């Protein structure tokens, strides 16, 4: 959470599924606009946005691989404005997913430390 220039963090060593979903639901695209879920120093899921539109990234191997959750039903040709990490940005619409997809990705990541094979991802 941001207070002006200050970033306030909250950590849970062994979060429950309820804790994870509460962190996702706390995102409002304003005061709370991003959160990170850390498996280890090299494996991190970042979720930004709020109010029904989220961008979800997994970095692994010390940022050598980045996986972005996508919704193939959405346009690759249009952008959507979204606040993540306190910054407003335009993201391709297909990278802005709904809560259901973000929650599914988060719960799988917490259980397995990887991108869910049941969801659609692009990789860099």
From TrEMBL:
InterPro entries: DddI (IPR025680). It comes from the Bacteria. Pfam families: Imm1. This is Uncharacterized protein.
């Amino acid at each position: 959470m941001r207070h002006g220039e200050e970033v306030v963090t909250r950590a849970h060593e062994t979060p429950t599924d309820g804790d994870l979903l509460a962190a996702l639901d706390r995102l409002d695209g304003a005061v709370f606009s991003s959160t990170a879920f850390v498996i280890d120093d090299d494996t991190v899921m970042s979720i930004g946005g709020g109010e029904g539109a989220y961008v979800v990234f997994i970095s692994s191997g010390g940022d050598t691989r980045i996986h972005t959750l996508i919704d193939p039903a959405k346009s690759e040709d249009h952008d959507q404005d979204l606040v993540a990490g306190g910054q407003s940005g335009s993201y391709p619409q297909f990278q802005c997913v709904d809560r259901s997809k973000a929650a599914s990705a988060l719960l799988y990541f917490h259980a397995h430390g990887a991108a869910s094979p049941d969801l659609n991802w692009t990789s860099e």
